[in-house]
Known about the structure:
Distance between the termini: 52 Å
Structural class: alpha+beta
Region (Disordered): 128-186, 301-325, 568-611
Domain YknX-like barrel-sandwich hybrid: 70-394
Number of strands: 27
Strand content: 25-35%
Organism: Candidatus Acutalibacter pullicola
Protein name: HlyD family efflux transporter periplasmic adaptor subunit
Oligomer: single chain
Number of helices: 8
Helix content: 10-25%
Keywords: Coiled coil, Membrane, Transmembrane, Transmembrane helix
Amino acid sequence: MSINKKTKKNLVIASVVSVVVVAAALGIWFFLQYQQDRKTVDVVPLMQVTTTYWGDQIYSSGTAASDNLQEIYPSTEQTISDIYVAEGQQVQVGDPLVQYDKTRLELDVESKDLAVKQAEIKLDDAQEQLEKLRKTTPISTPRPTRTPGTAATPRPSTPTPAPTRTPSPTAAPTATPAPEPTVPPADVTLYQRLDKDSRPYAGSGTTEDPYVFLCTANCTMTREFLELLLGLGVEEGATPPPDQVLYSPFAAVFEVREGDSNYGELITSFRLDGTQLTAGFDQLEQLEDGETLESVADIFDAPRPDAPDEATPSPTREPDNYNDMGYTREELQDLIAEKRQEIKDLQLEVKQAELDLKKSQLALENSTVRSTIDGVVRTLTDVTTATQNGTPFLVVSGEGQFFVRATLSESLLGSVAVGDTVDVMCYDNGMSYTAQISTISTYPVENANGSYGGTGNPNSSQYEFTAVIDQPEGLTNGMYLEVTLHVQGEASADALYLWKAYIREDEGGSYVMKAGVDNRLYKQYLELGATIYSGEYVEVKSGLTAEDYIAFPYGTDVQEGVRAVVEGTEDPPHPEEDGSENIAVGSSQEEDNLEEDTSSALAPDGPVLYDEGAVADANGAAAFTS
């Protein structure tokens, strides 16, 4: 009997202790939740950390000089076609002196323009592939690992004896053919019919680097495609329509590969080079309907003899995802990160191609060399002799003028032009002047220190320019001058530019910490544009409005779900209808939200739990409130 009483006593004590422990744990948990929810993060109105664009100021420097000479050296890359002046002739600013042959310069501009278009096509393709990856749903389990072969089943340790019988001739075993390797599906467009809107998956369309198209065995070409390839009906120097994908004329290779995939082995291919055939086909444009050109077009657009006797089907539309590839979430994240890096590299390639085009256009514009000063042609010698001696063949000497020579960054060549007005400040006499740019060199300056301040890039090549100073009273030779150029770039004055310090990045892209309508922080992803003021501000194309509040995105307390208050106050950024204090929910609520969003493959780092408007209940109160 005493044992039973003791057992009961121990059970009562154990129960009381368990209740106390549970109560204490719950109390601690609620206390921690309460303390966590009492945390707040300051937010500021968006307009407080944004700016507008009024143009950049670029600074450079030079020294005042009055012994103004214009020296023209023979060019090793260009041929002089005309000389408009004679020795001893009076000239004024803007008078033509020398004309270089434009043919080669025009060809160079066309080549650079084509390079820009090709770089843009590559960028567009990479961006399309990124969108497909972002729309791809990952598989729930990893793909099974493919093994070279199947292990043989082990024999039992004691084999069962077989009944004895008369041996018979044993047939030779039939060899089991090894399974053929599976060709991955194509990730480029497969064409059954080529028209003017078809896109190659490689190449730039030149003889050295032809376009490459992936085709079916019975692929056909339309007449429009053939005419673009041969350059028929395209006027020389004409700009192609904005909706035209292919640059005419062009060279192309047409491939048929195993499995109709760009990963398959090459079965057959042939090449057509319209850049070399164009001149020979000029006379075909004069043919009437029904003659040779028409029949050639009919042959290219007709089905092959072994093709079904039916209308040629349109190319199968590519799916907008890679679901059939069976990528896991980790593989998708890696592929998306790689594609983002590829896009950044291609964006730089496009910018470089555009800069090269601007330089070629500038060289074409400067093919007519004009006088930069009012003066006299002092020297005009034979070009061949000047080339051998390394001396200028034409020299113009000016009188009574002051000028300044300074440098500008290569990236500004297309934004600064001859005739632009610049401001000049002389610290020696404290006076300000205006000057007009008279020349911009087409060759970089060796060992230039570069510009400073503004948006000039000191790491890029520097190009010298000369500006003639208006009303140079008070200037003497050698005075130090600071030159200010006012550059209006391609940025829009109406756009919204956010201070870059408020922007962070993760696998999902660039984002800010924004206060939602429930006055809780969450990640808001942005579409960004151009940068201004030396990259200090970034254009926000979508994701924010002028009425939003955002937090400085660094610090241990800056997390999704934390309450937001307006900086310098305890007030919430958005009105709360019931005035009740928000209480953070536990992890179960977050897990429920997570399970609801796992079907989305657009955010590899997980769903946005505090998306504005997505957590409101039927009464309008936030779902993350008690």
